[in-house]
């Protein structure tokens, strides 16, 4: 039974990567797909395909556990499934993007830990400065691709590469410089991408990725602890993960307070939903 479940899970993972690739094409080639088919239907089918594969992966993981309890990764996937089903009522495009982020995470995990017997991870963990540099470059690259998507623009067309690259770099490095008006050029989807880049760059990629790993219940080895120690200041006299936890909690509290204060003003000039969104966006940025 275990062997069958493992084989099914492996098949689901392969299908999930293929659907993730198709999802990226759906987001990027909306004008082309719209010319040949009903894009709304393609978008909905793609979102449902992602959710179905996620549900099957969860079921198979639960069957493999055999009473051993549910791990953090499975709980996280269940939350993703519930959130995806809720968002689907509002917009299928956001479901595709949400689950694409999940697949990207697992793809990177495969490249780092399973491909070539984890040699890439071992090399990176022994070179903290290079790890930090490459992590920023990766986030900027992904941000650039996402900002180039037609769905990221209010004009429903591809944003020029240089403009998207500049915006992604500026957001990730938290410099606040723009070459196109953020409010009028980028759609809600594009603005959320920018917001995520700002938050990622502000907290730090290593901080977020380590917190994410801890959230999923993964153990942190000595090499990663060494990387985090150097990233966070190069001292072993403090509990680096307690510091990491405090940074995230303090950031969330400060941003929440800022959003509340801004909401009091925005609520006077905008509808409630817009006022909430503007408050959160300006508080983080």
Question: Notable features of this structure?
Answer:
79% helix; globular
Write the layout of secondary structure elements.
Blueprint: H1 2-28, H2 30-36, H3 39-65, H4 72-90, H5 92-114, H6 119-125, H7 128-148, H8 161-172, H9 182-185, H10 188-203, H11 205-215, H12 222-231, H13 240-266, H14 272-284
What does the model show?
This protein is mainly alpha-helical and 285 residues long. The protein has a domain of 117 residues. Helix content is 79%, strand content 0%. It is built from 14 helices and no strands. Helix 7 runs antiparallel to helix 10. The mean pLDDT is 78.
Largest sheet: none
On the 0 to 100 scale, the average pLDDT is 78
The rounded Rg comes to 20 Å
Q: Element order, helices and strands?
A: HHHHHHHHHHHHHH
Please state the structural category: mainly alpha
Extract low-pLDDT stretches.
none
What is the number of strand segments? 0
Q: Quick one: overall form?
A: globular
Work out the helix count.
Answer: 14
N-end to C-end Cα span: 50 Å
Helix content: over 70%
* Percent strand: under 5%
């Amino acid at each position: 039974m275990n062997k069958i479940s493992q084989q099914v899970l492996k098949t689901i993972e392969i299908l999930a990567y293929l659907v993730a690739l198709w999802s990226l094409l759906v987001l990027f080639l909306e004008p082309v797909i719209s010319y040949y088919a009903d894009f709304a239907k393609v978008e909905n089918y793609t979102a449902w395909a992602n959710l179905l594969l996620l549900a099957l992966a969860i079921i198979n993981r639960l069957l493999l556990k055999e009473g051993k309890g549910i791990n953090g990764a499975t709980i996280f996937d269940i939350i993703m499934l519930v959130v995806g089903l809720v968002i689907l009522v509002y917009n299928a495009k956001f479901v595709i993007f949400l689950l694409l982020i999940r697949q990207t995470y697992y793809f990177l995990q495969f490249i780092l830990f399973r491909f070539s017997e984890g040699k890439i991870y071992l090399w990176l963990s022994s070179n903290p400065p290079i790890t930090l540099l490459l992590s920023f470059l990766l986030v900027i690259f992904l941000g650039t691709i996402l900002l180039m998507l037609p769905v990221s623009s209010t004009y429903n067309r591809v944003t020029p590469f240089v403009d998207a690259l500049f915006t992604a770099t500026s957001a990730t490095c938290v410099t606040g410089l723009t070459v196109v008006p953020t409010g009028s050029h980028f759609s809600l989807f594009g603005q959320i991408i920018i917001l995520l880049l700002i938050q990622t760059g502000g907290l730090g990629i290593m901080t977020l990725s380590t917190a994410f790993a801890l959230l999923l219940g993964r153990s942190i080895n000595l090499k990663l602890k060494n990387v985090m120690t150097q990233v966070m200041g190069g001292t072993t006299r403090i509990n680096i993960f307690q510091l990491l936890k405090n940074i995230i909690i303090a950031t969330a509290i400060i941003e929440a307070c800022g959003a509340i204060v801004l909401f009091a003003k925005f609520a006077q000039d905008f509808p409630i939903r817009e006022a909430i969104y503007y408050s959160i966006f300006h508080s983080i940025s």
